[in-house]
């Protein structure tokens, strides 16, 4: 259903830039969250619909690898793609691209949980369908 998605573009705000002139590391994950939200809208399963379907997803692991920083006034885009779909969890790879160069990449592992307090659950069919084909961004 999906190719690598790149529908989230941003320019860092003044307060996101540290004394070295690059985006402070914590802001990368904020932009990943925004991009993941847009990814699921693009895939036809907006996050806002998940509670009504009885599930949610919790972040259980994140990793980031930096090659260079996103700098002040850069126009950066965040690529999102599923890299693993398991029974109760899935991984979304992300990459920050600036001027055609990948400057940061990583992955977020999400565990699916019941909104009724029953702990982790198997990935709902709607979510598996929305995630589509596995296309890792990292080698």
TrEMBL record:
InterPro entries: HotDog_dom_sf
SUPFAM superfamilies for this protein: Thioesterase/thiol ester dehydrase-isomerase
Protein name: Acyl-CoA thioester hydrolase
